[in-house]
Amino acid sequence: MPEIDLTGGQVLRREGWSNAPLSFAGGVIVDKPVGRSVDLRGFNILPGIVDPHGDGFERHLAQRRGAMKQMDEGLVACEAELAANGITTAVLAQFVSWEGGMRGLSFADKVFRAIADTRNTLVTDLRGQLRFETHLLDLYEEMPGRIADWGVEYIVFNDHLPHDRLEAGKQPRRLMGQALKAGRSPEKHHAMMLELHGQRDEVPAALDGLCETLGRAGLRMGSHDDTTAEGRAAWRKRGVRIAEFPETLEAAEAAQAAGDAVIMGAPNVVRGGSHNGNLSALDLIVMGYCDAIASDYHYPSPRRAALMLAEAGVAPMADIWHLVSGGPAALLGLTDRGVLEAGKRADLVVLDAATGRVAATFVAGRVSYMSGEIAERFTA
Predict the structure, then answer these.
(1) Is the confidence at residue 178, as pLDDT, over 90?
(2) Taking the model in full, what pTM does it have?
(3) pLDDT tens for residues 283-303?
(4) pLDDT of residue 99
């Protein structure tokens, strides 16, 4: 691991920008010079981005149905994209869903095993998140064992069944495409959805038991797309203390008031609103109801969102960058990263001060990405 003093650049610390050098050795930040200086005038040094939820990795693992047979090669490609976007810790959100295909149980098993197998061969810290569809009652008994076997420490509960259309006897939207991806006929796929919809009254009690089991095992648990205060309260009662992408202000306010962590999507910020008309992430950030910003489906967006918020003067840069570094690290229980201070992991991203582009990324003091002029300075 390199031992380096970064000098001349602006360093984003808890209290704001500082021109004091930043030194690291043995993979951690230290409080005194270590001897080899690299001049980073013209660059800004910030805590590495911690991404608490992203599914952009899917296109690396299987660009087309059946195209990717070696999961490890896909994860290598994914890591390169993560590093190039300043992400030092990435939570890869993998479904186990009635949708099947890349969101089915068999594919999830391959993904989580690949993450475990490649973890020690990559620089970026890759972690798995299980996105579990709540109406899959037949899987409840086996899921705790599978989760332990996969080494997954974080589960988020989803319900993406189109209950309104199913209840009204209408054909679900995108039925044909979903059926093809799952390898089912449209008729069988529709029948399965109706069967799952018909079990909806059994789901709450089953969730109570499953969450109790997973809570005892120490899993971090989140809910997805909350819409009501009552719904958030029900999840909280089960020990589910993270609210991912709440869809309404009511749900977000309920989470914030109870001390639950709220995650919003960075693409929502970059776009200026939700792509499907849900709650604006910018509004929540301004109101102080957002604890972390996630990449969701686009890895460049956390950095872009933070820079846009800073340019707009929403809050001081240290507070804004906390939403993509210290904030997500805290809700994931990763107390060793997210800030640039002595004793913490040397997870950092170096941005070109003029353009805001990523020039270099370090994870525990090791280079995961470096390009252009900054590479010349390090190799000189």
Answers:
(1) no
(2) 0.95
(3) 999 999 999 999 999 999 999
(4) 92
The Cα–Cα gap between 362 and 374 comes to: 13
Query: What is the pLDDT, as a whole number, of residue 279?
Result: 81
| Average pLDDT of the chain, as a whole number | 94
- Cβ–Cβ under 8 Å, residues 150 and 128: yes
CB of 34 closer than 8 Å to CB of 3? yes
HEC string of the chain? CCCEEEECCEEEECCEEECCCEEEECCEEECCCCCCEEECCCEEEEECEEEEEECCCHHHHCCCCCCCCCHHHHHHHHHHHHHHCCEEEEEEEEEECCCCHHHCHHHHHHHHHHHHHHHHHCCCEEEEEEEEECCCHHHCCCHHHHHHHHCCCEEEEECCCCHHHHHCCCCCCCHHHHHHHHCCCHHHHHHHHHHHHHCHHHHHHHHHHHHHHHHHCCCEEEEECCCCHHHHHHHHHCCCCEEECCCCHHHHHHHHHCCCEEEEEHHHHHHCCCCCCCCCHHHHHHHCCCCEEECECCCCHHHHHHHHHHHCCCCCHHHHHHCCCHHHHHHCCCCCCCCCCCCCECCEEEEECCCCCEEEEEECCEEEEECCHHHHHHHC
Nearest of 34, 121, 109 to residue 75 by alpha carbon: 121
Does 372 or 125 have the greater pLDDT score?
A: 125
What are the two backbone dihedrals, phi and then psi, of residue 131, each rounded to the nearest 5 degrees? -100, 110
Place of tokens 């008309």: 277
**pLDDT score for 380:** 82
Exposed/middle/buried for 155, CB within 10 Å: 0-12, 13-18, 19+?
Answer: buried
Q: How confident is residue 181, by pLDDT bands cut at 50, 70 and 90?
A: confident
Checking 312-320 for CB contacts under 8 A at 24+ apart, the result is 314/282, 314/285, 314/286, 315/285, 316/16, 317/12, 317/16, 317/17, 318/12, 318/13, 318/14, 318/15, 318/16, 318/17
* Model pLDDT for residues 93-122, shown as the tens digit of each residue: 999 999 988 899 999 999 999 999 999 999
In the β-sheet with 28-30, what is the strand arrangement from edge to edge?
28-30, 22-25, 4-7, 37-39
